[in-house]
Design goal:
heterodimer, A: mainly alpha, two-stranded antiparallel ribbon, two-stranded antiparallel sheet, 4 strands, 71% helix, 3% strand, globular, B: alpha/beta, Rossmann fold, seven-stranded mixed β-sheet, six-stranded mixed β-sheet, 13 helices
């Protein structure tokens, strides 16, 4: 059967092209408008980027857990945001006790490492229990079933914490050493943010080396390539899955403490939004891909911080908004999720590609 | 197979039929005992309790606001010796979560309860926007102790809000006091505002900005920004504000976001220590001191004036009762308004309630609403209350407080934070 030339171009493709060009046009027009106004100096833009980096490195640490579990089980662990929350919440009690005893300000490094340890242990413990009870019995079930179980586990954890510790929030104690800022090459950077960025980068590097260089890491990659063949080669698949959950959860627990250093309020619902954002970051970078999660997290953080001002401030709409979109920061989340849609349209498998999922997806 | 389907269909139909019982019926004229009313009558059998409901935020980060109001209601009930027109008073309530969804849920639950005579609430204006019409559709009049958004009692608010009134001040007043304080006392020439998109915060920020512009000339409000209530990273928006070098940031938001703004404003290099911070009654709580930490010291809060000079000796008596019952200082600023709201309702019920020969009581819903709106010269704890036709009843007295310590245990409105204006 012959089709005419026009019918061969699917309507959806035309729509997508128009959409892509439209969004790029709006972004360029808005950015150009903002920069032409010259309201913000170079230092302000650098500040925006630094704020974005610290927020993004926390997203990246959480995203690692999503991406590692997906790489091995092809499952989105939606309880991961709550694993993050539980680490931050339980570590709060350690931090508050250290603060009351004066230990936190006398030995800040040791105290913070101890708080970090408490958070990582708690998160790991909770993730392992969730894996054993909610996910392992469902391993052979259709894919949708463990997904629903994950959402259930997420609610269970949230409301357990609500039941134990109430609906109010707790304020993390501040560390005196981390007040103020350091000046690096002429750029002032807040000490908490510097610690968060460095901590997150160290942790991500360690994790990357663990997966690439150690025997367990090799086994992990083997399991993610093909679970059955890996089992035939003598790899204990259950053990590898437990380790994956544990390592991802430890990263989330550490992210919890780092997050609480910058945003010192913890409450039972605090894991929801960072969890969703980190999941977005994982998809952005290419889910299942560990460097992808890091890139996606940083990318998302910087976009959230720079985007509203850069794209919207100068986006004049004649007749409606002659001076640009007012109060652009309300649209921060919109920008983050529009970016997700855009990346999925341009590169459906994420920025760095869905590397581990080629065979099974 | 067909039988099963038929059974399922029947079962669903039965469930629907059962559910329709709980759907609040549209109000219609009703005659019961000695009372005829245009939108319905509540009958309270002899010896049965008379039900008053509250819908306030009693959980989550803003819980202090609602719990504070609930205590005002409870003390009003104690003062009435727990009885009203010969019936014991029963207080029930719902958490309304300080957002639109929570307000809708709470109001829907209350609207389904036909025993409720009147309601007290809500805490946050965002709850009242969708919630008040739901209650009024069920014929329940509600008096809010702490909603302050101008839009709720605006002349164009429409008949859906016909059963809504408040003993809290209108933010037309609070925003004006804040702007005057900033101009005359702080001698500030340039200010920026931040709101969180809720009707309360947006309304108040706009009133402040308008009055401030009138006092200091065009361009004196350098930027009007907005965030969302769940945001944690305020540094980008503060950095943006800093570019225009305002001397004051006015952020009438709620506790969680307010705490982040206060803390992070000290960290943004362009703002530094010189910029003055001012918030409003939504953050007037010890929980805000906890959320903001050390950065609260030196900050300003506008809030109802609770000093004995403003409220008179009646308030001192009230405070003693409060201390005896709950042990400690009030958690927020709207307990006297809640106390007055409860007493307004009690007075109106006494006026319209009618008894039959058996000792049963009948209250007409429209009659109760009209009696409440007809309130004139009511001597309450917060002043002399007179309601206008749009439901504004307050005798507003606004003060500005300054925080002197980050120690939550020292919370005692008037001395810590210290009242500095007027």
């Amino acid at each position: 059967m012959r089709r005419s030339g026009l019918a061969r171009i699917p309507i959806i493709d035309i729509f997508l092209w128009v959409f892509r060009i439209g969004v790029i046009g709006v972004v360029l027009y808005g950015s150009f408008g903002t920069l032409r106004q010259g309201k913000y100096s170079g230092e302000v833009w650098i500040d925006f980027v630094v704020f974005g980096l610290s927020q993004g490195s926390v997203y990246a640490l959480i995203a690692l857990g999503y991406t590692m579990v997906y790489g091995i089980l092809r499952m989105i662990n939606f309880a991961h945001g709550e694993v993050f929350m539980s680490g931050a919440y339980v570590a709060y009690f350690a931090a508050a006790a250290f603060n009351a005893a004066g230990f936190l300000n006398r030995q800040p490094v040791i105290a913070l490492l101890a708080v970090l340890g408490v958070a990582m242990l708690t998160s790991t413990g909770i993730a392992l229990v969730v894996e054993r009870i909610a996910y392992r019995p469902l391993r052979r079930a259709p894919r949708l079933v463990p997904l629903i179980a994950a959402i259930g586990a997420s609610f269970f954890l949230q409301y357990t914490f609500r039941g134990f510790f109430g609906t109010g929030f707790q304020a993390y104690p501040g560390v005196n050493v981390l007040k103020g800022e350091w000046v690096l090459a002429g750029i002032g950077i807040l000490r908490t943010q510097a610690v968060v960025i460095v901590g997150a980068v160290v942790m991500m590097l360690a994790l990357y080396l663990f997966v690439q260089r150690t025997k367990t890491g090799t086994a992990m990659r083997a399991v993610s390539e093909d679970m059955e063949v890996a089992a035939m080669m003598g790899i204990d698949v259950d053990r590898i899955i437990v380790i994956t959950f544990g390592v991802g959860a430890a990263a989330a627990g550490a992210a919890g403490v780092l997050y609480a250093l910058v945003f010192p309020q913890v409450h039972f619902f605090m894991g929801f939004l960072p969890g969703i954002k980190a999941f977005t970051a994982a998809v952005l970078g290419g889910i299942g891909n560990i460097p992808g999660a890091m890139v996606g997290g940083l990318f998302l953080g910087i976009f959230e911080s720079v985007g509203p001002t850069l794209f919207l401030e100068g986006l004049t709409v004649p007749g409606i908004y002659p001076a640009g979109i007012p109060a652009p920061y309300q649209l921060k989340d919109v920008i983050a999720f529009v970016m997700l849609v855009m990346v999925l349209i341009f590169r459906p498998s994420g920025i760095l590609g869905e590397r581990l999922a080629t065979k099974k997806a | 197979m067909r039988h099963v389907r038929l059974l399922v269909a029947l079962f669903v139909a039965l469930l629907l039929a059962g559910g329709s019982y709980f759907v609040p019926s549209a109000p219609a004229a009703q005659t019961m005992g000695p009372v005829t009313d245009a939108i319905g009558v509540v009958k309270i059998n002899k010896g049965q309790p008379i039900t008053i409901a509250y819908w306030l935020v009693i959980a989550g980060p803003d819980a202090t606001l609602g719990v504070d109001s609930r205590r005002g209601i409870e003390i009003a009930i104690d003062d009435a010796k727990g009885t009203l027109v010969g019936h014991p008073i029963r207080l029930i309530g719902e958490d309304s979560a300080c957002n639109a969804e929570g307000g809708t849920t709470a109001a829907t639950k209350l609207a389904a309860n036909k025993a409720i005579v009147a309601a007290i609430g809500s805490s946050c204006s965002s709850e009242a926007r969708p919630g008040a019409p739901i209650l009024w559709k069920a014929g329940i009049v509600t008096v809010s102790p702490s909603n302050t958004a101008p839009v709720l009692t605006a002349p164009d608010r429409g008949p859906d809000y016909g059963g809504y009134m408040r003993t809290a001040h209108n933010d037309q007043v609070q925003g004006k006091v804040a702007a005057e304080f900033a101009t005359r006392v702080l001698k500030v020439k340039k200010a920026a505002t931040i709101h969180d998109g809720s009707p309360y915060a947006e309304g108040l920020a706009n009133v402040f900005a308008d009055v401030f512009t009138r006092l200091n000339g065009a361009g004196s409000v350098t930027s009007r920004e907005a965030i969302s209530p769940t945001d944690t990273d305020m540094r980008p928006v503060l950095t943006k504000i800093a570019a225009a070098k305002p001397e004051l940031i006015y952020f009438p938001v709620f506790i969680a976001a307010g705490g982040f703004i206060a803390r992070q404003a000290k960290e943004v290099s362009g703002l530094g220590a010189a910029v003055k911070l001012m918030s409003a009654d939504g953050t007037f709580s010890p929980d805000f001191v906890k959320a903001a930490g050390d950065s609260v010291v030196g900050m300003y809060n506008s809030s109802p004036d609770l000093s004995p000079q403003a409220l008179g000796p009646g308030y001192t008596v009230f405070l003693n009762k409060h201390k005896k019952k709950y042990g400690g200082n009030p958690l927020s600023a709207f307990h006297p308004h809640a106390y007055d709201a409860a007493n307004l309702i009690f007075a109106a019920i006494r006026k319209v309630a009618k008894k039959d020969a058996q000792g049963n009581t009948y209250i007409g819903r429209q009659a109760l609403r009209d009696a409440l709106f007809a309130t004139k010269g009511f001597k309450g704890l917060t002043g002399t209350l007179t309601c206008n036709q749009y439901g504004d009843c307050a005798d507003p007295k606004i003060a500005v407080y300054q925080h002197t310590t980050a120690d939550v245990t020292k919370w005692n409105p008037g001395t810590s934070p210290k009242k500095i204006y007027p």
